[in-house]
Amino acid sequence: MNPLETLKELSSQMSFEGDGEPLFDTLSRNSSRASSLPRLSSPPPACFSPKEKDQAFVHPAQLPNGHKILLLKTLLSSACERDCFYCPFRAGRDFRRATFTPDEFAGLFSKMNLGGMATGVFLSSGLAGGGVRTQDKLLDTAELLRKKYHFRGYLHLKIMPGAEKDQVYRAMQLADRVSVNLEAPSPERLAKLAPHKIFIKELLQPLKWVEEIRRSVPAYKFWNGRWPSTVTQFVAGGSDESDLELLTITNWLNKNVRLKRAYFSAFHPIRDTPLENKTAVDPMREYRLYQASFLLRDYGFDLEDLPFTHNSNLPLHTDPKQAWADMNLIHQPIELNQAEKRELIKIPGIGIKGAEAILNARRMKRLRDLSSLKKLGIIAERAAPYILLDGRKAITQLKLF
Q1: 398 to each of 34, 368, 375, 381, how far by Cα in Å?
Q2: The pLDDT of residue 211 is above 60
Q3: Does residue 33 carry a pLDDT above 50?
Q4: At 95, phi and psi to the nearest 5?
Q5: Which of 125, 216, 285, 366 could form a disulfide with 76 if both were Cys (CB 3.0 to 4.6 A apart)?
Q6: What is the dihedral of CA 219, 132, 271, 96, to 10 degrees?
Q7: CB neighbours (10 Å) of residue 196?
Q8: Same structural domain for residues 88 and 145?
């Protein structure tokens, strides 16, 4: 294979890997159930190149700072010695493997970057020769990109199972983001997905190391003078776990290792794997998990606030923020002219920016009708059942159909 064919092979199965703050979300755009939370899911990967179609899989993505990038998500190698039950790269599966050397990949990506085809890269790999050896190859590639090719753009490096603490430290010095996929919420659940991975020693420990290093080493010693962010990913439904289990570990990671974000990938079966006959998970479950995780991370919600059903899952028919409001605010609406920010952001239709806009507007005048909220960018009709304006319920126009 020529280098571009190799890249297409290595990129073709990376759509399940999450990164960035994606640009749009089909569910939130088309569903009447969509909340005021951030848009969550990117479209399926598209082969993109301004010069020639089908050159490489590059995903439009938006970073947390708002910058939009063209993100190449790929593997250094699809050869893997692990036999994870759900994974398209598992050992023994019959498909064509491909591998780049660090020099080959760094040179190719540098050309793509200079040609405007990709402005950021997310680099992972199958595990071959152990975690330490594979991590060294990823680090060598990152070193070449940063030092030989002077790439100063966004770089996300995967931490391999079994990597050493010094390797985690070096990855943090080179990357804007590092990640370890926990895949499941506990050792018992992980055994159903990846029987030869060790949950605490190989997966959770590196995330703890990242936070230990952040606490002991000043930020100026890292790339661009900042600590890299950390993320993880779960295979939602792959191990028959509940949403409560997934969100409990996510909440713990938010508080204890400053996790930037948890990604959730709804399980779908892959041909020629042990789980090929397992039923695919409804994509709405993935969406609800994202909504709930943002409520925990950014909106001041606790696990006890989330509307879990009898089987410890989130309801699919409504978003968790509105479900909470229906239980807590419908008979005790919040006075918008007096509420604090922490109260405002719990109202459906009002996000973090909307709450700040309300607080700023209140310094000038009192809010008395829904039209004044609309001018602030609030989804007024969604907020109306849960608020008071100068002590009165908001007047809404009745829907005829």
Answers
A1: 20, 19, 20, 11
A2: yes
A3: no
A4: -155, 165
A5: 125
A6: 110
A7: 13
A8: yes
Rounded CA-CA distance 11/47 in Å is 10
- Rounded CA-CA distance 290/263 in Å is 7
Cα dihedral: 259, 21, 302, 380 (round 10): 160
Question: How far apart, in whole angstroms, are the C-alpha atoms of residue 189 and residue 180?
Answer: 17
Give the confidence band of 285 by pLDDT, cuts at 50, 70, 90. very high
126 shares a domain with 244: yes
Span 52-110, pLDDT tens digits: 444 457 888 888 777 899 999 999 999 999 999 999 999 989 888 999 999 999 999 99
Instruction: Give the residue, 35 or 165, on which the prediction is more confident.
Output: 165
Work out the widest C-alpha separation in the chain, in whole angstroms: 70
List the structure tokens of 29: 């755009």
Residues listed for the chain: 401
Q: Evaluate whether 5 touches 115 at the Cβ level (below 8 Å).
A: no
Residue 207, Cβ density class (10 Å: 0-12 exposed, 13-18 middle, ≥19 buried): buried
Q: By percentage, how much of the chain surpasses pLDDT 70?
A: 88
The answer to whether residue 401 sits within a structural domain is: no
Q: Which residue has the tokens 């199965």?
A: 13
Number of domains in the chain: 2
Residues 273 and 138 both lie in one domain = yes
If asked whether residues 15 and 135 sit together in one domain, one would say: yes
Q: Are residues 260 and 387 in the same domain?
A: no
Quote the Cα angle for 243-297-362, to 5°: 130
311 in any annotated domain: no
Q: Are residues 160 and 96 in the same domain?
A: yes
Contacts of 184 by beta carbon, 8 Å cutoff, 6+ apart: 190, 192, 193, 194, 199, 234, 235, 238, 239, 241
CA torsion sign for 254, 257, 260, 263 is: negative
- CA 97 to CA 306: how far, in whole Å? 43
Bridge partner residues of 74 (DSSP): 123
Pair (95, 10) in one structural domain: yes
Tokens representing 136 are 């060294």
Residue 52: give the domain boundaries. 3-301
Q: Is residue 400 part of a domain?
A: no
Judge if 284 and 388 occupy the same domain.
Answer: no
